[in-house]
Give the backbone structure.
Amino acid sequence: MNTLDRRLANTPPSGVKIVPSDIVRRRFAAWQGIQADSVEITRRERFEYGATSPFHLLIAAERAERDDGETLVEGCQKSVLREFNRKLTFIPAGRRFYGWQDPRVLMRTTYFYLDPAGPLLDPEMRFHEVQFEPRLFFFDRDLWETASKLKTQVENPASSGYAEALSLVLAHELLRLHERPLAPPLLRGGLAGWQQKKVADYIEDRLDKEISLRDLAALVQLSPFHFARAFKQSFGEPPHRYQMGRRMERAKALLKVPAQTVTEVALMLGYAETSSFTSAFRRLVGVTPSDYRRDAA
C-alpha cells in the first residue's frame, strides 16, 4: 500500500481525499441521489488526490493547469496532460481514481457523486444496471452546461427541486454518452494513447541523453512538425521542455540521496560539467542543486 493509499484508508467512501487538506476550500451540498463538492485549492504547492467510491463520480474541472503531475483512472491510460481547463472526467462506481500535481494555477473543480440506485433517479432509466466506462479529460457541451448549473446550486442554492431536476438531467446526459461512445483518444490533433505512452516511456529511459525531435517523431511515425504540435496538445508543453522537466524531477530524487555528490548527479544525468547542470537546475527549479538538497534535508 503506497503513501496515498494509507492516507485514504480512513476516508469516507463518497469523497475525494486531497492531501494536504489545509490547502483546500470546499463547499458541499446533497440532494436525493446526488452529492456535489465544490473545491478550490488555496496555495500553489504539490498535492495528491484519490478515491474509490461506491458512487459514480463526475469531475468538472473549471480551472486546472499544472507544471507536473499525473492522473490515473482505473481502466484508462495514465495522463500527464498539463492543461485541462473545462474538461470532464467520469469514474464509474468502484473504479479507482488517484494522482498528484504541482499546480500552475489555483485549481477550481467540482465533484458530483451519483448514487446508482439513488431514490431520485427514474426507475425506468435502469440507471443502476448500466455498465459505464471510465472517461478521462473529455468535453461534452451539454453535460458541461448541466454540471455548471448544478455547481451554481452548491454555491448559491435556490430550491432543492430545481437542483434535483438538474441532477436528473445530468443522469440522462451520462446515459446519452454511454450510448454514444466518444471518439478514440486523439483530441484535436493530440497524440493517441499508445503514442503518449511510447514517447513518455522512451524519454523516461533516456533522461541522461539529448533526444532529437526527429527521433521522437519517428518513434510514433509522424513528421517532426506534426509531432511537435500533437505533443504539445497532449502534454501541455513542447517536447524539449517536457524532457528537461522530467530530467529535473529525476535530479531532485537523486539529490535526496546524501551519498551522491552534486557532480555525480550531474554526470548521471548526462552533464559533462557541473556548472551546466547547476544552471539548468536553477533555471527550472528556482534554486541551486545544493540549496535544494539542504532544504529537502
User: Anything to note?
Assistant: Strands lie at 17-19, 24-31, 34-41, 47-52, 56-63, 66-73, 87-91, 96-103, 108-114, 135-138. The chain has two domains: 3-179, 193-296.
